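Researcher: Re-running this chain for the archive, since the previous output was lost when a drive failed. Same request as before.
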Amino acid sequence: MCRCAAEFLSQPGRAIQSDREHHLVLELIMEKDGDSAERVMREHVRASRRALLAGLPIAGRHEGPDGARP
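Model: Regenerated structure tokens:
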């Protein structure tokens, strides 16, 4: 797993939510509801992106080796 994926999946509740989103997409595909599957997957990708970006350091912010700000 890449460092980025590990970072955002380590956020509280994100791994469980991501798993639920994937299962829902699979169910919709099995029900042949492609429009809903696409919508749910797009929402999942947006949520994953937000979670990933929330875990990235902000440019110009200085942190110590332990992640604490001076």
